[in-house]
Amino acid sequence: MAMVGEIEHITSYRYAKPVSFGTHRAMFLPRRGASARLLSWSAKTNIPSKIHWVSNSRSNTVTVLEFSEPRNELTFTFRVRRFYFGVKGVDAFPLAARAEEVPIQYTPDEWTGLAGYLRPHADDPDGSVAAWIKSFVAGDQDRTTDVLRRMLETFRATSATVRGKRRERSRPAKPCGRDRAPVATMPG
User: Fold this and answer.
1) Which of 61, 64, 124, 125 is most buried, most CB within 10 Å of its CB?
2) Helix or strand or coil: residue 136?
C-alpha cells in the first residue's frame, strides 16, 4: 500500500546567557531508495543561519548549519514529506536461506558493513529499549518475515499516536566550555 508520510522534528536548546554557536551537522533526511521518494524537505532555525546540504561517504544527506550571532536559544525545525511505495507484503522480501530465521547468520563481510548500525547509539540503563526490540521475536528463534510483519504492524499502529507530540527537556542545556554550544547531531 502506497502512502504519503510527513515528519516534523523540532529541537530547542536554551541557555542562561547568550552563547556563540559552532557549525552544526544534522542527519534528518531519510535515505533515497526504491521504496520511497522525497517530495519536499526543509530546515529552519530561529536565528539567522546559513543552511546547505552535503553528502557523506555513506550517501547520507547531511544538513550543515552555520551561525553568526550569539543567542540564548537555538531552535531547529526540520520537515520532510515522503511518498512510500510500500510492498505487496513482507513475504515479497527476497531472503537468502540463512536469513529466513532470526537471529540471522551474517557473514564476516556483512558484520563489517553492519557494525555501525548494530551498535546502540544511546544509553539504555533500564533495558527498556532492548526489551521492546526483543518483544518482536517469539522465543529465541523466529521467522524473519513474522518479525518484520509484527514490527510493521506496530509502527503503523503507533504512527498516528506519535504525530504532534513534543519532547521537552526539564532544564536548560548548559553550554560546553566558556561560550560555545554543543554540536548537535541527529540520527536519520
Assistant:
1) 61
2) coil
